[in-house]
Design brief:
With 157 residues, this protein is an alpha+beta fold. The chain is 25% helix and 23% strand. The protein has one domain (19-148): Cytidine Deaminase, domain 2, CATH 3.40.140. Helix 3 (113-126) links the parallel strand 4 (91-100) and strand 5.
């Protein structure tokens, strides 16, 4: 038997103002994207913004449905829209912001497992790291690549 460890490194910022200009813009766009939420059941609002390799930004917001689980998370709405609108462009970075009743929470909203796997798929498609930024009212976490939030990525096909 061999014991192994997985180490994850990320940056933590106290405010959006500490981010570089490009990440700050994406964070602001993720917060704006929260306005497109339809969440009558959970009242949990998540907005996402994806930066494409040409600088374009695509928004997404969680969408709930009475026929649960037919809704979709903000991250996947943004990535699927980006993939459809810009099939020949890479996704460079994704930012997400969320909280109850449309207000940013104290802790960053983190993506579900399905969203992490979709991020991993688009990162693999591009062949380059896709950074992930998670935003709250009190702090921001930045991960340099999807592998940092989804170690042991499923890629066995």
């Amino acid at each position: 038997m061999t014991n192994r460890e997985i180490h994850i490194t990320y940056e933590e910022y106290a405010s959006i103002e500490e981010l570089n200009a490009e990440d700050r813009e994406l964070a602001v766009e993720a917060i704006k994207a929260m306005q497109g939420v339809y969440a009558p059941y959970s009242n949990f609002h998540v907005g996402a913004a994806v930066r494409m390799s040409d600088g374009s930004i695509v928004h997404g917001a969680n969408q709930e449905n009475a026929a649960f689980p037919s809704g979709l998370c903000a991250e996947r709405t943004a990535m699927f829209a980006a993939g459809a609108l810009y099939p020949d462009k890479d996704m460079v970075s994704i930012a997400l912001a969320g909280g109850a009743f449309g207000r940013l929470g104290k802790e960053p909203a983190t993506p579900c497992g399905a969203c992490r796997q979709v991020m991993a798929q688009y990162q693999a498609k591009s062949g380059k790291p896709m950074s992930v930024i998670m935003i709250s009212a009190d702090k921001i976490w930045k991960f340099e690549k999807v592998d940092d939030i989804l170690p042991l990525i499923f890629n066995s096909i």
